[in-house]
Design goal:
Strand content: 15-25%
Largest sheet: 5 strands, antiparallel
Distance between the termini: 70 Å
Number of helices: 9
Structural class: alpha+beta
Number of strands: 12
């Protein structure tokens, strides 16, 4: 399915579905496989592929799928497809969606793998079947085929730049935000890193300084922006990040929405946090609070 830019009218056009990457994919049958190997080497590689066929495939939750591949989903998907099940192959290199066409009421599947920038995008679709069991079997086969080929076979050709390691320390220790250091060095935060990493692969850095601020003086602000980014995507909005103001220009079925991410943080000068000055206001407010409590108790006692 291809969709008009106004999100309102899905238009059928062959087997292309509303997952980013499927319109430019190269069929996996044209990619590296057993047929492309010289005859003298095939016995060695067949052993490897038999191992691939045994790779376990498990069902995953919608929450996990959204964290990995939900950013490639076009909002208009909900108008044409019902998503029945989400699958992940052992090792996490390939994920898949079992679907039901809302018009024809037949079943199919979408296979997703990482592109050159390590974003999960569509790389293959199954045929369509009258029964969901048949579609699931075809989806599992397609996922194993996708795991079998070289990773370069999943590159889309439209990626810009090179993959970035967001968690590699790029500045001297004195400049790094303590929360960022905890996130990157504490094993207890590994689940958080696994959620943040695929999200940041899709986040377009309109300011050009996202990673620098994420690691130093703007950690809290950048985490808040990532949260809003994920929230708006899961709410079904398309985001336009071509301009740095406002932070999010959103388009959805109900219209447009503009969001500026705001946080309360310390004063920063020349890349360093300025220590907060002590104030007498806290003591003043404490006295007011005690007085208010006493008055409240007095009123209650007079009413009893």
């Amino acid at each position: 399915m291809d969709f008009d830019s106004n999100l309102s009218t899905p238009q059928a056009s062959g087997s292309n579905l509303c997952i980013d990457g499927l319109t430019s994919m190269r069929p996996l049958s044209d990619s590296f496989g057993v047929a492309a190997i010289p005859g003298c080497l095939k016995p060695c590689f067949r052993g490897r592929y038999r191992g691939m066929e045994k790779l376990a495939i498990k069902s995953i939750s919608l929450t996990r799928f959204n964290a990995l591949g939900g950013y490639a989903r076009h909002p208009a998907t909900m108008m044409t497809l019902e998503e029945l099940e989400y699958l992940e192959i052992e090792g996490g290199s390939v994920i898949g969606i079992l679907t039901k066409d809302l018009t024809d009421e037949d079943f199919g599947g979408i296979v997703m793998a990482r592109d050159r920038n390590l974003r999960f995008r569509g790389v293959d679709v199954t045929g369509f079947f009258a029964h969901s069991e048949e579609a699931r079997e075809a989806l599992v086969d397609g996922m194993r085929n996708a795991a079998r080929v070289q990773v370069e076979a999943h590159h889309q050709g439209d990626e810009v730049g090179e993959p970035v390691d967001f968690f590699a320390h790029r500045h001297e220790p004195a400049r790094l935000n303590p929360s960022f250091v905890q996130l990157t060095t504490n094993e207890g935060y590994s689940p958080a890193r696994d959620i943040i990493e695929p999200m940041m692969r899709w986040y377009e850095d309109a300011d050009g300084n996202f990673v620098e601020q994420f690691q130093t003086t703007g950690f809290d602000q950048r985490i808040w922006e990532l949260y809003l980014f994920a929230l708006l995507i899961e709410a079904g909005y398309l985001l336009d990040r071509k301009h740095n103001v406002p932070d999010f220009s959103c388009s959805g079925f109900l219209g447009k929405l503009f969001v500026e991410a705001v946080t309360v943080g310390p004063t920063v000068r020349e890349g360093r946090i300025v220590p907060r000055r002590q104030s007498t206001r806290r003591r003043d407010w404490s006295a007011i609070s005690r007085t208010t409590c006493r008055l409240s108790l007095a009123v209650r006692s007079s009413q009893s």
